[in-house]
Task: inverse folding
């Protein structure tokens, strides 16, 4: 299906890449239908592009590629809300914030996006406790995120 | 907003399923106990707001940094659907001549 985007122009996206956010994500309650786009050749990095608003997109990464010890203790209410029956039906993404020149990157480990891979439904959850924050520096900046993705692809 | 005064030990019943108890009061800090169904998430408001603000910053940051941040290459308007494997093939030319951070380049 053709998707209009502010960052990439008009692009062609397979239906299977679509996600549904029933309550959007925090600050973007209308996110609704979105799709995950591959990043330019780097596995593990995904653009989360809104299908309804071309200007809204987030760069995300599979957290364990960059933070191998990350433990997302998702509360029961969120697991139930997503209808996740088995842990293997879950995928996690964390939202990245870039500095102006794109060299510094932080990851929001406090509020991962949790995806039910069976239903393609997704929510952003806020983890309990104070172990994580919204801005965890990714040492080595954007390059190291790409490196981690490349290493994952090679494994 | 409904404003009620409660003393230590007193409770509020919210809807059919939520109960809030004032567990203790010490100085300007109140300890609240929440009983709610498993389906109801209870979160600290300032955390939720902080996450919302960070999401907005994140979305803005990828737009303003788009000249540096590699975009989803290989996705063109065409009859062919996008490569699901994450752009492994190099058959498509990038839409824009953007600097693409590869492992060889430093960020």
Result:
């Amino acid at each position: 299906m053709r998707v209009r985007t502010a960052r990439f122009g008009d692009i062609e996206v397979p239906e299977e890449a679509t996600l549904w956010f029933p309550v959007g994500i925090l600050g973007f309650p209308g996110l609704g239908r979105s799709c995950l786009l591959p990043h330019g050749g780097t596995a593990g990095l995904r653009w989360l592009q809104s299908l309804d608003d071309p200007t809204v997109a987030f760069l995300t990464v599979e957290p364990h590629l960059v933070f191998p010890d990350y433990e997302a203790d998702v509360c029961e209410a969120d697991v139930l809300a997503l209808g996740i029956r088995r842990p293997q039906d879950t995928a996690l993404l964390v939202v990245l914030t870039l500095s102006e020149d794109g060299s510094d990157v932080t990851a929001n480990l406090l509020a991962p996006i949790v995806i039910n891979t069976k239903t393609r439904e997704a929510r952003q959850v806020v983890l309990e406790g104070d172990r994580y924050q919204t801005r965890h520096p990714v040492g080595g900046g954007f390059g190291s995120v790409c490196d981690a993705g490349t290493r994952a692809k090679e494994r | 907003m409904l404003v009620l005064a409660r003393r230590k030990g007193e409770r509020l019943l919210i809807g059919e399923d939520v109960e809030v108890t004032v567990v203790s009061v010490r100085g300007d800090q109140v300890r609240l106990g929440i009983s709610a169904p498993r389906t109801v998430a209870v979160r600290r408001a300032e955390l939720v707001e902080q996450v919302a603000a960070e999401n907005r910053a994140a979305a803005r940051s990828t737009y303003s940094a788009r000249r540096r941040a590699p975009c989803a290459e290989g996705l063109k308007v065409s009859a062919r659907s996008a490569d699901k494997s994450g752009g492994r093939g190099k058959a498509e030319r990038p839409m824009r001549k953007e600097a693409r951070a590869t492992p060889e380049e430093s960020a």
